[in-house]
Structures are given as C-alpha cells and as structure tokens.
What we know:
Number of domains of chain B: 1
Shape of chain B: globular
Oligomer: heterodimer
CATH topology of chain B: Amino acid/polyamine transporter I
Number of helices of chain B: 16
Structural class of chain A: alpha/beta
Family (chain A): Belongs to the GerABKC lipoprotein family.
InterPro entries (chain A): GerAC_N, Spore_GerAC-like, Spore_GerAC-like_C, Spore_GerAC_C_sf
Number of helices of chain A: 15
Radius of gyration of chain B: 20 Å
CATH architecture of chain B: Up-down Bundle
Strand content of chain A: 25-35%
Helix content of chain A: 25-40%
Strand order of the largest sheet of chain B: 1-2
Subcellular location (chain A): Membrane
GO cellular component, one term (chain A): membrane
Order of helices and strands of chain A: HEEHEHEEHHEHHHEHEEHEEEHHHHEH
Distance between the termini of chain A: 110 Å
Domain Spore germination protein N-terminal (chain A): 24-197
Radius of gyration of chain A: 27 Å
Structural class of chain B: mainly alpha
Number of strands of chain B: 2
Mean pLDDT of chain B: 89
Amino acid sequence: MIRMLSMLLCLSLFFMLLAGCWSRRELDELGISVGIGIDKAGKGYKVTTQVVSPGEIAAAKPSGNRAPVTVYEATGETVIEAIRKITTMSSRPIYLAHLRVLVIGEALAREGIHKPLDHFSRDHEVRTDYFVIVAKGTTASNVLKILTPIEKIPANNLYLSLDTSQKEWAPAATVTLDELISDIVSDGKNPALSAVKVVDKQIGQTQKNIEIIKPPGHLRFSGIAVFRDDKLIGFLNEKESKGYNYVTDNVKNTVGSMACPNGEKIAVEIMKSKTKVKAKMSNGNPRIEIKVSMEDNIGEVECQIDITKRETIAELEKIAERRVHDNIMNTVKKVQRDLKVDIFGFGEAMRMENPAAWNQLKQNWNERFSDLDVFVTADVKIRRIGTVANSFHKEGEE
Amino acid sequence: MTGDGFEMTGKVQISLRQFTVLVMFYSIGTTILVIPAALAATAKQNAWIAAFAGWLLSLIITALYVKLGSLFPRRSIVQYAALLTGGWIGKPISLLFIFYSFVGAATVLYYMGNFMTTQVMPETPIEAFIVLFAGLVVFGLRLGLEVLARTAEILFPWFVVLFVVLTIFLLPEIEMKNIRPVAEIAFKPILSGAISYISYSSLPLIVFFMIFPANLNRKREAGKAFLIGTLVGGIFVIIVTFLCISILGADFTERNMFPSYALAKKINIGNFVERVEILIAGIWFMTIFFKTVLYAYGFVAGLAHLFECEDYRPLVLPSGMILAASSLVVYPNVVYMLEFDSTVYVPFSFAIGLALPLLLLLVAGLIRKKRNH
C-alpha cells in the first residue's frame, strides 16, 4: 500500500513537468511586429510599430475591408517604455523577434542614434537580422503608415525592395543592426544607411491607395544616408550611392550606360564586380588604392558601332573603365570635400594592413581623411554581348 | 592514515575512453559559453590565438596532474593530502579543495540558470531551472560514477553531431576581415587571455583527482587519456572562439553576454534553416551538466573521503539541496558574477588548481629523497 502511494506521489511529480512551459506564449497571444520606427518626441522617443493583423494575412479568405497591418504609436522617455505603453492600445504584447525593418526618423538621426538603439541590442527577443534605414525628410512614423501593393505587409515590402535593389541596381545599403553597431564603434569606418522617402502620404495611409493600379502613395529608397559616428550629416544621391557600393564591394549586379565613341548611348550590365581596397603608407602619408575588376555584358546598344569587332569591345572596355573610375573618384571626392567622414572604411583597411601606422593615424582620422590620396584602377572585361550580334538599326540604315 | 577504508575508492571502475570523454566534456563545460567574450576583451581579434596559447598551457598543467596522479594510483587527493602532510595540515588542505569544488558546482548551476533566464525564458524564475538541473545532478550522482561515465559515452556522438552542424552552418558567415590584422599580436593580452582560459578550463580539472587514476581500469595509460581529453576539449573551445571572432567581430563578441549563443542565432541557410539556436544550445546543456556533476562529485566524494565514510551516496541529496540553495545566493547579480570571474576567480583557481598540486608534488619529492638517504 505504501509502495503504491509513493509510486503515485512520484508519478504526480511528472504532472508538474507535463504542464508545459512556464514562459509559453501562443501565436494568437502575440502582436507580431514587423516594422518599428523611432522618432524624437520632446525629451523622449515616439515609437511606431507595424503589427500584422493575422486575420488578414493568414486566413484563406481575408475580409478585405480591414488593413493587413495596424500601426500603434506611443511616446515614452525611453524606447522600452514606449514599446510597453503600446499595450494600452493593443490587445496583444508586441513581439519583436520577426522584425524586418527598423526605421529612424531624420530628426532623430541627426541628433544621434546610439541611445535609442541600445534596447534593440540588449533585449533577448530582438534578433539582429533586420535592416536599419533612415526616413529621409520625414518621420519614421510616416514611413510605416504607407500601404503597399503586392506585398501585403509594408515592412516586408521595404525589406524585400531594399534587398532586391541592392542585388540588381546597387544604390542601396543593406545594413543590419550588428553591422551598424560595429561601424559606430569603429574608428576607421563611419556608418552609412539606406534612406527611404515617402511619396504622397495622405492617400498612402488608406486602403484606397492599394485599390488604384498605380498607387499614388508609396515608399522609395533614395540614396544613402551618411553618418558621423552616430549622427546623420548628409545624403548621397543615387549615383554616388553606387560609387559607395563599388568601393565597399557591395555591387552584385547593376547596369550602367555610357557614351559610345560617336556620342550616343550604350548600356552594360555588370555581372561580377570585385573591389579591393589597399591602404599604404608612402613617405609618411597614407595612400589608398582601390582596385575594381568587373565582368560586363552588353545590355542595350543605341549607337552605330560594330560590336562584332574586337577593337570595338576593347574600346568599350576602356570607356567603361573610365566611367567606373570617374564615378568612384567623384563619390570619394564629394565625401572628402563635403561630408568629411570616412564611410568607406579606409581607416579599417589601414588598421588591417598596417596596425602600427594606424595607431598613429586614428586620433584625427576624419581630418586626415579629407586630404587622403586616393587612387582608383578599374579593370573591365566585356564577356558577352547578348543574344544578337549587331543591333538591328544598323541593318535598317544600309 | 592508511587502512582498508581507503580501498573503496578503487572499487568503481570506468574505462579510459569514458574518462577521456568526461575530461573533454568537463573542460568544454561553461568555457564554451563565456570564454570567447573574456578572450576578446583582452586579445581582441586575436582571441583565437589566446585560446590556442591557453590550450598549450592547459596541456602543461595536465601533464603536471598526470605526474601527481601517477604517484598515488590508488588514492584520491583528499586521501594522499592527509598522507603526505599529516592530518593537521592535510585535512584543512583537503577542505580547501572541497570548498573549491563546492563553489564551482554552485557557480556553474547559477550559470545555467542565468543563461536560461537571460536568453531563453526571462519570465521564468531562475529557481525553476536550478531545481530541475540540480535534481538531475543529484540523480546522476546517486546512480554513481559508472552511470555518469556511460552517459558521457552515449552523449558524445550527439555532441559531435550538433557541433559539426553548428560549424558547417556557420561557415558561410565567416568574414576573414574580422580576424585581421593578425600581425597586431602583443604578448601581454595573449598571455592574460591564456591565463583566463586555463583558470576556467584547465585548472578546474583538479576535481578529477577524486577519480584519477584510482577509478580507472587501466591505470598505466590513464595519463594519456587525461591528456587526450584536454587536447580534444581545447580544440572545440578554439573552434568556437575562432567562429565568434570571425563572424561576430571582436567588439560584438566582447560586448555579448553569451557570444556563442549569438553565434548560433546567425545561422541562416537560404531563409530556411534559421532560428535553430536553441537546438545548438543543446551542446552546452550537455557540457554544463558534466561540469556541474563532476564539481558536485568532487564535493561529495571529497567530503566522504575526508570523514572516511564508506560511501558518498548518503551525502548526495543534502548536498544537492545545499548546492541548489547556494547557487541562488552565490552571485547577488550578473555584474557581480562578471567581476568575480575576471578578478577573484583567477587567483582562486590558481591557488587550488596549481599551487596545491605543486605543493603536494614537492612534499612527495622531499619524502622520497629522505627515504633514499
């Protein structure tokens, strides 16, 4: 009898374990936040979060008359307070593990971003795999309120469009939180983030926006935001952003047009691009050598040349090399002259190549950066010319 | 101080292979969770070189242990400390050793609970993890050394599989620029890194003197098994440190509480195999279990030998309760833990793990010299 009782007692202990996790949270109890925006608000922050409305996203038949996402806003002295305050409006606690984008309003970015970002690196729930972007000329809150076509979740749209434009067009910077932090703490590189613009925010915030075939309200990435340490100081335009990506070796695939020898245009698709940045000391002065090697295909011919000739290809390679060279040089010159911060990581290159010299240089690196000697060599190989040889307009003239 | 009561040490026999695996698990222990951050704090991008240097030092320390162990093939450290220096000095020395094992077991329990409440389930009270884990340790100790050794042998392949999966999945994330410049090697940070490595990973191996070599079935090759265990364990730690530095970068590794967990979070194969970090955490659940259980074994078996008990088992349950309770108070907060580990713990570990065996070796040498004259 006692044996039986003790057995039962032991067995009942297992129920404690079988009852499941202490900290369990079911999917239908979470407000899954896909985008979060931080703006300045008085002394504290305004946090805007885009939360998916599961009924509209996951259901087989969405009702259609509700927005696929909801935006909550709250202000607080600190970021975490503002996030918790959202529960006064939302039925579910905000769950940040599926975050796709973190948007920072321009006004806050100009003041400095390291304070509001601490919570995102400290909290156990937040990962580091989302993109950090800057709202150009507007607030983060406006960016997160635009409804987008095709992708039901606007934050997903931002994430994917940044990712694809980086892969196919190369004027953007896909920076995740951990990369951003290491750029902020590094002496030899300053951060650069993608900037996003809001077009027609009035209509963009309504469901009507995505009922129109060409939604008037939309988001568009436009160039790169340049930081000094953690403060926004300016923007690069699209062309300069591409130059930036050439230097930092982030070009995967892009296209560029150039002038033919006789003046009209020809476009090439860059299939492969590899950049090496070397930092050297010559006569006590730092010297940066950038070497770009690319493989191109011809993508569009609008001028009267015979591209079936080897000399023509060689000549086009020369033109393409000059073009890339000029683009990089102009970007570097502009950053050296106007922004005066090393966003290219030349200092990092120096630290890796010549640690001893770097220890001397790092004290006033940003000042030195402005009058660094930068040399660019480009090596372009045109490999293929597409599915036809010469363009048909040539034949039409004969 | 000799008698039949001491022969019980040799009754339980484990195989050399089991011993090797135990040593390996033990030297990986909590080291795998915390050492990358500690090494990156001093040696920056050369943390993996510091781990390598620590690994070499740990082989020397193991060689010293093997030497000491070979002098007393049938007795535990508690027994021969009393034998060598007499009861009045030997017993307090043994108490120091037992205290060290106790503190080790309590802190490792805290580590386990702290990891779970910081990274995985912050709302769950730390007591829940500690009581469950301490229960497991008590269970293991009551079943005895042979069962623990067999468990280690069974878990070893699983450990290797998880580790290989982690490493392979992380290979695409490696960025060699993070470990450069390799040339920026300074002697001092590497040495201080190596010292913290051995104080976490190899000096605590002293608790094996409760097993080594008295409980091994082939005592002649026991030293080799000890060395191989440390060698293999160290290789795993070096690999993890290298992955941390080359993937997370020195700065992020240094700032992270648990860099190897942050590392596992980085796994993303084609947006499909991702968010698997908790499976990878299985690696350290295994290693931390063996570290705790062996520390606790050092504590209870040490007590049993000190008081010349027939068996250590009656002490296990009360000791487990004391351990669980003291693990909750051993560190008042995380910052205290970080400070204790980087300041007090290092000399503490050196005193017990290095000075104590050196002293015993010296006394043994003197006695032998006297006898020869």
